[in-house]
Design goal:
With about 240 residues, the chain is of the alpha/beta class. The chain is about 50% helix and about 15% strand. It has a 7-stranded parallel sheet, sandwiched between helices. Bound molecules: NADP nicotinamide-adenine-dinucleotide phosphate. NADP nicotinamide-adenine-dinucleotide phosphate (NAP) binds near residues 32 and 33.
């Protein structure tokens, strides 16, 4: 199996690479912006799992490069994981500066959609492939403290849902991953509730198991399905007055 990870410097991505290397002996291509970090990860994964791992530069906000990036891949992937993400420590800057808001939207949604469309066309032509999009439970209901990031994830959820609907009769599977809190560099410095916060390795194992089962939507950890059901059930009249 050939696995391509987009945004591969993410802590979750690294754990996902480990899960696919360990369980599937997959050949892995790590794509992201910081090449120095990626090269260290290539070495780590090669030594730990004895699988073929390589890396290449990829910036999802460079829309013009998407088609040539994909065309340049000598071996086309069977599975693609989209794991790039951007969430600033606070939303304030994005409220004041549209460029910051556009960056959130580009990394979490519009860039992802533009890149995945190129890959989906190839998968559709070949009649097989799996696209795994790492989104967030933040996309399920907008909160005052994080609604710009949340809306980028809501758009990504709708996008993945439509793409799944389009490609399910073409041999192509699309899985939406909805994580809750995870201990990663994205959440460093945030005061997260310990019991509700997962390690990247736990999320990665959930993603691998769900991939094997061809799940459409994965909440990870599992209890977020129920937490979000409660949050979505709160009437707007009440929700708008809550400090979330
Ligand atoms: N951590 C959480 O609590 C949490 C919760 C729910 C959902 N998620 C989602 O899960 C995914 C993984 O999150 P994480 O916590 O593992 O993130 P992370 O460790 O902060 O890593 C995010 C990665 O995204 C990459 N990235 C950012 N901008 C990019 C760009 N323009 N082009 C290519 N790559 C870019 C960066 O790679 P470079 O270093 O190469 O720039 C960075 O390493 C994200 O989609 C995130 O939104 C996270």
């Amino acid at each position: 199996m050939n696995l391509l990870i987009l945004g591969a410097n993410s802590d979750v991505a690294y754990a996902v690479a480990g899960a696919f290397a360990g369980h599937e002996k997959a050949s892995i291509l790590l794509a992201s912006r910081n090449m120095e970090l990626l090269e260290k990860k290539v070495q780590d994964l090669t030594i730990r799992y004895g699988v073929e791992v390589s890396c290449c530069r990829f910036d999802v906000t460079d829309f013009e490069s998407h088609a040539s990036f994909y065309a340049s891949l000598a071996t086309k992937p069977d599975v693609v994981v989209y794991s790039a993400g951007y969430m600033p420590a606070t939303q304030e800057e994005a409220q004041k500066n549209y460029k910051e808001a556009l960056k959130i939207l580009a990394v979490n949604f519009s860039g992802a959609a533009a890149m995945l469309e190129v890959i989906a066309a190839d998968f559709e032509r070949r009649g097989h492939g799996t696209i795994i999009g790492i989104s967030s439970v933040a996309g399920e209901r907008g909160r005052q403290s994080n609604y710009i990031y949340g809306s980028s994830k809501a758009a990504f959820n709708a996008y993945l849902s439509g793409m799944r609907n389009r490609l399910c009769r073409r041999g192509v599977h699309v899985m939406t991953v909805l994580p809750g809190f995870i201990h990663t560099k994205m959440t460093e410095g945030l005061d997260l509730p310990g019991l509700l916060t997962a390690k990247p390795e736990e999320v990665a194992e959930d993603i691998y198991r769900a991939f094997r089962k061809k799940k459409d939507i994965l909440y990870t950890k599992w209890f977020w399905r129920w937490i979000m059901a409660v949050i979505k059930g709160i009437p707007e009249m009440v929700f708008k007055r809550m400090s979330l």
